[in-house]
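User: Can you predict the 3D structure of Palmitoyltransferase? Sequence below.
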Amino acid sequence: VLQQPMRAKHCQLCQHCVRRYDHHCPWLENCVGERNHPLFIVYLSVQLVVLLWGGHVAWSGLYFEQSREWLQHNIFLLVSFFLIFIFTIVVLLLLVSHLYLISCNTTTWEFMSHHRISYLRHSELENPFDQGIILNLWRFFC
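Assistant: Sure. Here are the predicted structure tokens for Palmitoyltransferase:
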């Protein structure tokens, strides 16, 4: 019988065992774990920059003169700006939540399912992997 490594999880969607499993990302159609979690943070950061740029482009393209046809001239850019704004909020919240979890040296899976994970079940207030914000961030990104 093979023993599953600590912090690893078998993903039912991918059918892979993922070390330091964080989550299965539906946008990437892939698991995020030990090998690609830093790249996922880069991906979210790039998405945020692109969305902010797209929002700026949509906003700067609006035609601000008063006329009866104002909405007709600007409807596409207004809808685009609104959608970009919503996606920007979602990506920003994802990025901030992941950076918070990284600073605590915990994964999304551990945070959401600590009551089901044997090595975390009895320590709700303490994270056995937390080594302080600076060291956690250093070990994650370096």
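The first helix runs from residue 37 to 60. The first strand starts at residue 9 and ends at 11.
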